[in-house]
Specification:
There is one protein chain. By secondary structure, this protein is an alpha/beta fold. It has 2 domains: 133 residues, ATPase, nucleotide binding domain (Nucleotidyltransferase, domain 5, 2-Layer Sandwich), CATH 3.30.420; 170 residues, ATPase, nucleotide binding domain (Nucleotidyltransferase, domain 5). The chain is built from 9 helices and 10 strands. Strand 2 and strand 3 form a beta hairpin. The radius of gyration is 20 Å and the shape is globular. The mean pLDDT is 94.
Length: 333
């Protein structure tokens, strides 16, 4: 009955979780509000706040799980991808903890962990399945053949879907983080009010740079005629943008599912918390007779529970790393 301590510090959430025999008993996430004043994550500030948060987060995770630090059998941590300074804090803490307790270290690929979040709880997809992994930095369609046998069959050629939402929120003058606000206002608007273009990219790949430009020019031209256009039509703009991003993602996913003949379809990553995308996937799944899997909200954004569950499966395979391990800002799947 292995006890795994999970550590996540890839961006601006400091998180710790405890997994006992494949069951998540705690998942503590410390958010960083310091970045709100800058309209985005400032890497140096993020790493400093991680240093302040990591010990309290780990202490709280152990306390919530009713587990002593002496009970921990291994430490799993995010090695990458992510912000180098942020990763360094988590990696250094994990190495120090493991060294002090003389227990194994388990390095985890952050993007694989998002996929493996689907193995938290009882409702699990069957191999092989497709996972649409969408965040502020990544947009991928992943063919998941086994726990750590994954193949990226489609990805963004430029910007990520989450970045497109964040940039749209900036264009609209919304505060950071803008993605949740786009979602909030979209629930009140007409998704068919405005039509934005869908990039014509071959295969299963994505592109969002042109969409961002189209949104920018659309707002610029409308505001030139009516300075209050955004304020008067905010809900409809957000709903229309959200619908276009969701349809771009789901159209490619649908194409991939048909090409590979796979009916177990999963959604993961921070943007999987978007209610429009979640609803769109479920509707498409019902139409195509898919089995759809969407993580609980707390497991969508960056969290240590997904690191701990990934660590659990690596622990069972005996796949450990050593004290020479270093963080990787870029880490392929």
């Amino acid at each position: 009955m292995p006890v795994i301590l999970g550590i996540e510090s890839s961006c601006d959430e400091t998180s710790a979780a405890v997994c006992v025999d494949g069951h998540i008993l705690s998942n503590v996430i410390a958010n960083q509000t310091i970045h709100e004043a800058y309209g985005g994550v400032v890497p140096e500030l993020a790493s400093r706040v991680h240093q302040q948060n990591i010990v309290p987060a780990v202490q709280q995770a152990l306390l919530n799980a009713k587990v002593s630090k002496n009970d921990v059998d291994a430490v799993a941590f995010t090695r990458g991808p992510g912000l180098l300074g942020s990763l360094l804090v988590g990696v250094s803490f994990a190495k120090a903890f493991a060294l002090a307790k003389n227990i194994p270290l388990i390095d985890i690929n952050h993007m694989q962990a998002h996929v493996l979040a689907h193995f938290i709880g009882d409702n699990k997809p069957s191999f092989p399945f497709l996972c649409l992994t969408v965040s502020g930095g990544h947009t991928q369609i992943v063919l998941v053949k086994d726990y750590f046998d994954m193949e990226v069959i489609g990805q963004t050629l430029d910007d990520a879907a989450g970045e497109a939402m964040d940039k749209t929120s900036k264009i609209l003058g919304l505060p950071y983080p803008g993605g949740p606000l786009i979602d909030k206002y979209a629930r009140l608007g007409n998704a068919d009010a405005y039509q934005f273009p869908e990039p014509q990219i071959s295969g299963f790949d994505f592109s969002f740079s042109g969409l961002k430009t189209a949104i920018l020019y659309f707002i610029r031209d409308k505001v030139a005629v009516n300075p209050d256009f955004v304020q008067q039509n905010l809900n409809d703009i957000c709903a229309s943008v959200e619908k276009r991003i969701a349809t771009i993602l789901l159209n490619k996913l649908n194409k991939a599912a048909k090409a590979y003949g796979i009916s177990d379809i999963a959604l993961a990553g921070g943007v999987s918390a978007n209610t429009g995308l979640r609803a769109g996937l479920l509707a498409l799944g019902e139409k195509n007779n898919w089995r759809c899997f969407i993580p609980k909200m707390e497991y969508c954004t960056d969290n240590a529970a997904m690191i701990a569950i990934a660590g659990y499966y690596k622990y069972l395979k005996g796949e450990f790393t050593d004290q020479s391990v270093a963080p990787l800002a870029r880490m392929p799947l």
